Amino acid sequence: LLFLWSITVSIFGIGGLLGSSGSRYLTVKFGKKKCLMCNNVLMIVAASIMGCSKISQSFEMILIGRFMCGLSAGLCVPLHHQYVGEISPRKLRGFANSTSSFFWSLGKAIGQISGQRELLGSQRLWPMLMASCGLPALVQLVTLPFFPESPPYLLMHKGDQEGCKKAIRQLWGEGQHQAEIDDIMKEKATMKNTKILSVLELVKEPAFRWQLYMIVILTATIQLCGINAV
What we know:
- Its main location: membrane.
- It comes from Hippolais icterina (icterine warbler).
- The chain folds into two domains: about 1-145, Growth Hormone, Chain: A, CATH 1.20.1250.20; about 195-230.
- Helices cover about 75% and strands about 0% of the residues.
- The protein contains 13 helices and no strands.
């Protein structure tokens, strides 16, 4: 039982690792908006599987659902940053990207509060608690079709300049947006001369060694600062 519960907890992280590893390939091939929509479908399916696990008397369904949740979360984190940053005007880009950290913390807090035995953490209601992760995914799945694809993706990867202009007008309103389009074109020209490093190449690259040390130390020590207890 201890082994099964350990696997149930840790399999979320395994799914997250696989999801985040495949996010770059998927976004280049299919675009940010399509990937986000498919990712929401994946989360809704995972929530449905976990919600039905008690009725089916199957702990395997919890394992599968947790893995799919991790996969979805691993895809969502880089996708969210990229899409929100790319559809935001330049003056609001930093603020828009910072919202992910706020809502990530808010979601964890709501989940921990909802998981109390007096609320959804009871023996009768815990399947609803596990299925609740599908609600935000459903909201995004319904609303996302009204948003355009990322303008930089349309211009840099699809070469669709008219589609890019249309998306910018839909997002930022009518006006002169040539400066933003020029910035995207400059970024595209820069990327042509820049080699995309794999994870292994990044670890071996001496120029990024100190930045890598800082990220590893920060990520490791944040677990010791008491934020989880708070």
